[in-house]
Amino acid sequence: MASPGEDTAVVVDDKRIVRGDTRRTAILAAATREFGRKGYESARIADIARAAGVTDAGVLHHFPRKKDLFLAVVELREDAYRELYLREITTVRDLCDGLVAAVRRAAQDPDLVRFRRMLTGAAGIEGHPIEGRHRRNLERALEAFVPVVRGGVESGELVADTDPERTVLELLALNEGIRDQWLTLPERIDYVGTFEAAVDALYRRIAAHTGHAPPD
Prior knowledge:
Blueprint: H1 4-42, H2 45-52, H3 56-62, H4 66-86, H5 92-107, H6 110-122, H7 133-155, H8 164-184, H9 191-206
Helix pairs in contact: 1-2, 1-4, 1-6, 2-3, 4-5, 4-6, 5-9, 7-8, 8-9
């Protein structure tokens, strides 16, 4: 049986872990806002620390360099879509539903969505921390999803003349475009609803028969 001193030590350690996780979450939230609004170069650790309610040293304790913090936010942003690559997708309808679910998760944090729009321009800047990342992400999406659409053509789920790669590119472009419109007019545009309607319209256009289409 543990002594009182050992029990106390465990409780203290647990509290430290909780406090550390809470601070890290606050830092990431503040960094998401600062990077999303100012970009990587203009955002300052001092401003992030102030917004998170910690000292500069507190930020650097969790993220030794600004680049480390920036890349941590990039990973946080991609969490909303990571599940799409982990799940088993057997039909194009599954793929469409998975994309809508991912967009729904992403839209829960507008600051992360704004951060993603900033990444679009930053990815093309030579020497930027995410230089080339968008290219890799697009290649990954094509490698993962084109076979699903091709399988839909072969199984008869989709009409025979459906181009698998163009279909995937159109799905991704719908998200990019509607997301940017939402960020421009958030009070007027329903990001998730508009994206879901656009995806369903695309699916109905290429579905071979109504048995695969979602109910009205």
